[in-house]
Amino acid sequence: MRFTTSLALFVLSPLMVSSFPFRSIFSRLPFPRTSPSSDPICSLPGDPSLILSVTCDLGSNKLQTMKDISSLISSVTGKPESYVAVSLTDNASIIWGGQAGPAALGCFYCIGQINKLNNGKIQKGVSDILKVHGVGEDKIYINYFDVERENCGWSSRTFAG
After folding, report:
1. Which residue ranges make up each domain of the chain?
2. Distances in Å between the alpha carbon of 14 and those of 11, 18, 20?
3. 78 to each of 32, 47, 102, 114, 158, how far by Cα in Å?
4. Residue 69's CB: how many other CB atoms inside 10 A?
5. Contacts of 104 (CB under 8 A, 6+ apart)
6. Which CATH architecture group holds 39-158?
7. Where is the signal peptide (predicted)?
8. CA–CA separation, 61 vs 35, rounded Å?
């Protein structure tokens, strides 16, 4: 008798199955119309992007500083500058070692091209660019992230297709 009662708990009525919330979710999943290898986006170089915050006021030099960093990233990664994105926030509130002063924090994301040599070149280049604005090379942290193609979106899809 006990077995019969337990078994009855697992029997679902047709009404319960049709109203199960995942049914509608699964019926709307977008399946790729082309295989990833045939999608032209898969052969594109992908996104190198730098998000950087600095404590100093860059004033009228901000755009040129961004362009210099964009050019640097393109030359180091070998990717077309048309794919490089740079976000630069000046006048940011950053403390370093518990003290206020000139400093910079950043995150660099790229599909491939993240390695010791390239990271070092970008770190040195950004340090040189920011030095003229009073930010010392010992007050700049940039974290480097190698992004998988399927984890980078652009133009309404990912670089994996």
Report:
1. 2-36, 39-158
2. 10, 6, 10
3. 30, 12, 30, 12, 20
4. 21
5. 52, 53, 54, 55, 94, 126, 130, 135, 139, 140, 141, 142
6. 2-Layer Sandwich (3.30)
7. 1-19
8. 45
- Please give the model's pTM, rounded to 2 decimal places: 0.74
- State both tokens at 2: 């006990």
Burial of 54 (0-12, 13-18, 19+ CB in 10 A): buried
CA distance 119 to 106: 12
Task: State pLDDT tens for residues 7-60.
Answer: 443 444 444 444 444 444 434 444 344 444 567 878 777 789 999 999 999 999
- Over the stretch 124-156, which tens digit does the pLDDT of each residue have? 999 999 999 999 999 999 999 999 999 998 888
